[in-house]
Design a protein that fits this description.
The strands form 2 sheets. The chain has a 3-stranded mixed sheet. The protein is mostly helical. It is elongated and about 90 Å long. The chain is built from 20 helices and 6 strands. A hairpin with a 5-residue loop joins strand 2 and strand 3.
Amino acid sequence: MNTKNILDKLKTMTPLDIAIWLERISATERAQIINLMTKDDLAEVFRLLSPKAREELLSALSDPDVAKLIQLQESDDLVDVLQEMPANLVIKLLDYVPDNRRETINKLLRYPEESVGSLMSVDFVTAKETSTKKEIIEKIQFSTGGPEHLNVIYIMDNERHLIGRVYISELVKSTKETIEELIHYSVLAVKTNDDQEVASDLFLKYQLLSLPVVDSENRLVGIVTADDIFEVISDEIHEDYLLQSGVAKSDEPKTKYLDRTIWSLSRERIGWLLILMITATLTAYVIQRYEAVLATHVVLAAYIPMLMDSGGNSGTQSSTLITRALSLEEIDTSHLGAVIRREATVGAVTGITLGVVNTVRILLMDDITLQVAITVSLSLVLVIILAKVVGGILPIFAEKINQDPAVMAGPMITTVVDTFALILYFQIATVLLGI
């Protein structure tokens, strides 16, 4: 590809598109493209690359270019980059950070990995109640923050306590030099040691673009912006999805699947598989316990997979909805009774519907007696009701004991519902078939 074609293509691409492009091409082509990019554009693309691609890019640049690239990074982005680099490379890169920024970066790096402090940026603009419009605009002009950091001006008192905010759009529109009438005194904030999920919940609930971060004395120390919280929310969704599937949280969350080691992929999965294998002995025990029932009516064995699958799917539906409701704070642990009543009712409606359809289906398609058909369908109704109730209870129980409700959504439901589904099935068969 010639230089003109590359430049034309770069003009039409977003930083994220460029980052994806750079990771898909050879080192030689990557070097050609990097040489044609401005330092500002390269700095924006650099933070979007994978850790491996960042290391390759840094090794291809001269020391002055690396220094410029690091210096152009905003504080929160630089911290994210450094947290994913090997320790020896971090020490080298910190040498390129100016002394007046290094202390701030080191402080941010010391916050726990999933705390708000590790996520926040210190590139923001503050003012006092007595500040003028002209003074604030001058601060904005000399600010190192990007557009996402400058949509709100934070108002502090003389001791740096956060007392309010002014929106930049309202400031620009105002014809007055004073800002008192523009100040909003109701301020949401999070603390540096709060979990990142606390911040993400506030962003979702109040539709925020940025959120101030304060220390234990309510002094403003940083802000969290929407572009950073999107990644947190995405990671939470992926983590919950993996937990529901019985896959442990990855110790390499941002490493691509094909770049992961076989051992790391296996280690994430083997834990729950071992637990489920061991707990499956309960299912085997139940089948052995009712061996006489199966020996008398062998046809009953053919419907065991259908009952277990229907129960597992029904329970997962309920647990997913309840986990979501807990996450959005639509319900809490005090709503356990209401959840049980609601899920039992939903289970009855869906169970009866499936039971009727199942009775007709197996009478038309299978060569069995009406008694067996009723046994199977009645079991199906009760299993679905049980599964719905269990699926509603487990996430709330997890929340009550301060565990992640998503963990209860998949593997635990499968174990509990399968065991009780078989007990119900064989007990009903014993009664209705007179075994």
